[in-house]
Every structure is written in C-alpha cells, then in structure tokens.
C-alpha cells in the first residue's frame, strides 16, 4: 500500500467521525515544512527538539489546509497560554499527532476535539491514571491495555472539545467513559470547565491503519 493510499484511508475514517460541516486534513511529518511556519508560530517553539518542530509544523500545515476548505485565508495559528492553537474568530478547531502523522479538524461554530493514537496497549502502570476501576471493569475481556489506549484517545478528544481560550484543566477522573460500538459516551462526574456534573457527551472512534481516531463534537 502506498503512503498516499494509506493517508486517504485515514482521512476517510477521520471525516466519518464528524458532521459534514467539519473540514479535516492530514499531513505526514515527512512532508512537514518548518520553514513555512509563520514568525508568530516559530517563536513559540524556542529550543524544541527537531521532532517536536516537525510535529508542530505538520499540525499547522494540516490546520491551514482544513481552514482553506472553509474559505479561510492562510494565517498564523499561534499558541494560547493553555497550549492550544489560536483559531480565527468564529472557528473551532483541534489538532493531534502521533505515529508520524498530524491531523486537524475545523468548523464554524461549537467546539470539537480530535485525538490520534497508535493502536498499541498502554502499559499496566498507567491504567489507574487513565481509567477508574469501574471503567476498566466495563471493558471487553482480554487486551485491557489495548482497550485502555482507545479509552485514553476518547478522553483526550473530550478534553480538547472546549471553547477557545476557556479550556479548563481536568483529570481523567472528571468523566466516566463507556466505550460502545464505533463510539463512546462520557458522563461528567464533576463540574469541569464548561461541563457540568451529569452532562453526557457522545463521541466516535475509528480503528484504521494501526491508529485510533477519536472525535467529539458539541
């Protein structure tokens, strides 16, 4: 399978996680162009290691491509104090990268979140940090580490689905996540940012080309 075909399959799976008005784009780290970063973006990197620079550049390239599909002219996407991108007014977006790939999703309107992870088991020492005993007990029998990686992706996408400039830090214990076929339900156990205890947020998951893709729209 060629790299272009693989990228196309991942892109199709990513788009299927979101409503039609959401624009999605992908960029391989190998195709990233750090020299194309805008000055406002470059200064946030400081003395970052080369791989971090490539991830950042790939994410910004994917984001600008996704914005272009919405008719938004290219512009700098600097970093806010909470480390999230500063999106143009009226635009909600999210960026993630893993396994040599960056993905970006954008739309006009309400917040959304995306996460991409390698579909590999999480080590057992991380299990209690990622999921409660009740969450772990609800997972399919066998391959607990693999299912917890998917639950982790769901929680990461959920965290990112907060309004720009108003993201609140909250722990993995803030919401109880239940995995279901092709998706998940997250019920908040406590107030967290714009979320209130008892709120239920539904998201979607996809497994494609050795990756876990998670998407949340609000």
From TrEMBL:
Sequence ranges assigned to domain 4'-phosphopantetheinyl transferase in this UniProt record: 111-188
Catalytic activity: apo-[aryl-carrier protein] + CoA = holo-[aryl-carrier protein] + adenosine 3',5'-bisphosphate + H(+); apo-[peptidyl-carrier protein] + CoA = holo-[peptidyl-carrier protein] + adenosine 3',5'-bisphosphate + H(+)
Pathway: Siderophore biosynthesis; enterobactin biosynthesis
MF (Gene Ontology): transferase activity
Domain 4'-phosphopantetheinyl transferase N-terminal: 40-106
Assigned keywords, A-Z: Enterobactin biosynthesis, Transferase
Chain's role: Involved in the biosynthesis of the siderophore enterobactin (enterochelin), which is a macrocyclic trimeric lactone of N-(2,3-dihydroxybenzoyl)-serine. The serine trilactone serves as a scaffolding for the three catechol functionalities that provide hexadentate coordination for the tightly ligated iron(2+) atoms.
Binding partners and assembly: EntB, EntD, EntE, and EntF form a multienzyme complex called enterobactin synthase.
Family: Belongs to the P-Pant transferase superfamily. EntD family.
PANTHER family listed in its UniProt record: ENTEROBACTIN SYNTHASE COMPONENT D (PTHR38096)
Name of this chain's protein: Enterobactin synthase component D
Annotated organism of origin: Rhodobacter calidifons
């Amino acid at each position: 399978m060629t790299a272009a075909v693989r990228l196309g399959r991942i892109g199709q799976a990513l788009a299927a996680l979101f409503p039609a008005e959401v624009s999605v784009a992908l960029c391989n780290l190998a195709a990233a162009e750090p020299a194309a970063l805008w000055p406002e973006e470059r200064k946030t990197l400081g003395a970052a290691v080369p791989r971090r620079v490539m991830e950042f550049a790939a994410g910004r390239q994917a984001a600008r491509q996704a914005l272009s599909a919405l008719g938004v002219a290219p512009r700098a996407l600097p970093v806010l104090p909470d480390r999230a991108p500063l999106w143009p007014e009226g635009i909600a977006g999210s960026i993630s990268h893993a396994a040599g790939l960056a993905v970006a999703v954008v739309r006009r309107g309400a917040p959304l979140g995306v996460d991409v992870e390698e579909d590999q088991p999480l080590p057992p020492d991380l299990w209690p940090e990622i999921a409660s005993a009740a969450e772990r007990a609800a997972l399919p029998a066998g391959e607990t580490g693999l299912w917890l990686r998917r639950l982790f992706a769901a929680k990461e996408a959920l965290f990112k689905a907060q309004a720009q400039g108003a993201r609140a830090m909250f722990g993995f214990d803030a919401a109880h996540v239940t995995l279901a076929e092709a998706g998940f339900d997250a019920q908040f156990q406590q107030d967290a940012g714009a979320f209130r205890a008892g709120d239920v947020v539904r998201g979607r998951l996809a497994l494609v080309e050795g990756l876990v893709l998670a998407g949340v729209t609000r």
